[in-house]
Structures are given as structure tokens and as C-alpha cells.
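cron nightly-structures :: item 1 of 1
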Amino acid sequence: MPEPSDDPTPRPWAEWRVVVPLDAQEASYLAASARISSFCRSFMTVCSYTYMSRATGMRMAGSVRMHREIPAHDQALPMTETAFDRDDVAFTSHGVTCRAWHYRPAAAARAPVIVMAHGLAGTRDAGLTPYAERFAAAGFNVLLFDYRHFGASDGEPRQLLQVGRQLDDWRAAIAFARSLAGVDGERVALWGSSFSGGHVISLAAEDAGIAAIAAQGPMMDGLAATLAMARYAGIGHVARLAGNGLVDQLRGLAGRSPVMVPVIAPPGEFAAMSSHDALSGYSAITPDNWRNEMTARMALTLAAYRPVARARRVRCPALIQICTRDSVAPAEAARRTAARLGGPVTTHEYDIGHFDIYVGADFERAVADQLAFWRTTLAA
């Protein structure tokens, strides 16, 4: 694996002649697409490494009062029933409305806030509410939001997944969280999972005001994740995703409707994730109205997104939770990131797969470790 540079920004370095069926209007945008040349670099690297490895504004819309009975086996929480409110709130990111839930502990005044969002094509109601409820029951504010183009948030086209847009949504959410009543703006923490586990590294590297971060099953290195996909699905699968991504990018430049690809599928079928546990694991946490699709252009930039390259700039305390049998976000990349972080690091490893951490006993272990970390790092 090549040593990451301090600047992970994709830069074009190669020109590739790609034969894709295009009409005249789409072809005219070919030279304008910087993402195509960025993909060329990533795809050529994937090919070579695969070969070598084989050879060798705020709006309140409502409030819900909740009570949570704390499990007796969760030693990190008080053994009492704790009340909290959940408010529907909204903020804007680049003029588009993002919707969120603000969990407010009933008895707390000026408490820390934990900002949360999901991973690849995930929405706030896809397995994240149990975490938010535990944090609120322990006395923390929580802001759990949907990205633009996903879930309850606005934004067209739907299901548009671009790293830069998601990072901008995080920045807007952080600023909004600091403005909320009852929030101590000096104690803002970030929680990410899978794809967003890498986002919290990128954001903490640029915002010295972040008090702490937690990343579970994190995608820390897009190149490593792309290589993992090539190993379990084959280089032809990666190439097919790239071909769809090229057409989608060109259609986007032309103002046309996007090309969609499935997010999850069984092994051997076409999707962004088709590992042995992707379909069953992701389906276990998604609501009935979740959309199993995303814009294909993400395939052009995935390998170039490497939060590990920014790790040295992170100075706040960090919790890195590594799933050692992770099929889509390689554990070794998370270990390398933890070793590079510039601040205090707490690392936990669990002998589980990527999706196991959201449910059952594995969720209980992970959330208990998170609560212990928050209590230590966010204490007044």
C-alpha cells in the first residue's frame, strides 16, 4: 500500500481514452470532467495492486418525549430510566434544507453535543437511533442528520453521493449544533460509522474546536476499500462500476438525470457493496422506505478519498473501533489511521464483521465503549 501524502485531494495525472457510448452533447463535456482523470489514477493503481497481490437557519417542527430503560448489563450507564426529548429541526447547507433530530436530555443544562450522520447511502433512521438514544439518556445532546439528497433532507437529484457535499453538510451541521439552546458550544463531538467514520477524521483535521471524535467500522482509505472490492468481487466488477460512473458524471455535467447503481446486492451481483454480508447486514438496519440506490459517479473518486492522509492533523481525543473481519472497510487501514493520529487515541478491536456492530450484543459492547469514551473526553 503506498504511503499516503499529507494532501489527499485527487489530482489528475494520466489521460485515458475510454470508449463509452455517448451522444454528441455528452461527448462535448468529456474534457471538462476532472473526476475522470482522477478516476484514471485510482483505477490504474487498483489494477496494479490487485495484480501484485495475486502474483504475490433553524426550524422546529415537533417534539417527542422519550424514555429509555437502560439494560442492566450496560455498565457505562446509570441503572435508571432517563427521559429526553427529540425535536425535529432543520438547517441549511449551501441553500438546501437538511433535516435532523435534536435529542435533548431533559435534566441537562449546557451539555455537550454529539453530531452524527450515516455512512454510504445511509439515513438517520437506518440503525442510528439506538446510538442517539443511549447518548441522550446518558445526558448528552445529539444532532442526528440526513445529508442533502438523502432521507428527509431536500436536494436534487435524489441519492446523489459526493464526498465534498457530505463534508459541507457536516460543517453546516456542526455550526448549527453549536447554536442550539442547551448546548455547550465548546464541547462538540463527532460520531461517524463506516463511510462517515472517515468523514469525522477529515473534519477534525480542519476544525480545532472539535472536542472529540468516535469512528466505528470506519472507511479510512478509499484505495484500500477499492482493493478489497476487487478481491471479493473481481476487477471486472470495479471496472463496471467505473463505466457507470463515467456515464453518470457526463450526464450530470449535461444536466441530465443520473445513472443509479444498487448500494447492496448478494455476492456475484452488481452493486457498490456485494460482499458476503452486505445485503443481509445492511438490510437488518434499514427501514422499509430506504432506497437501495445511489448515483454511480461516486465510483470515480472513492479510491482517491483517503482520510488516513489527514490523521496527523487531528489533535482531539479519538475513539477508533475496528471490526477485524470487516469486508468493506479494511481493518488495517483503520489501524494505520489510529497510529497516525496527532492526539490521544483509544482503540478497540472486535472480532466481528462490518455490519455486526449495529445490532445485538455487538452493538451493546460498542455503545458501552463509546459512552465510556464520551464521559471521559466531554466532562466539563
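cron nightly-structures :: done
The chain is about 35% helix and 20% strand.
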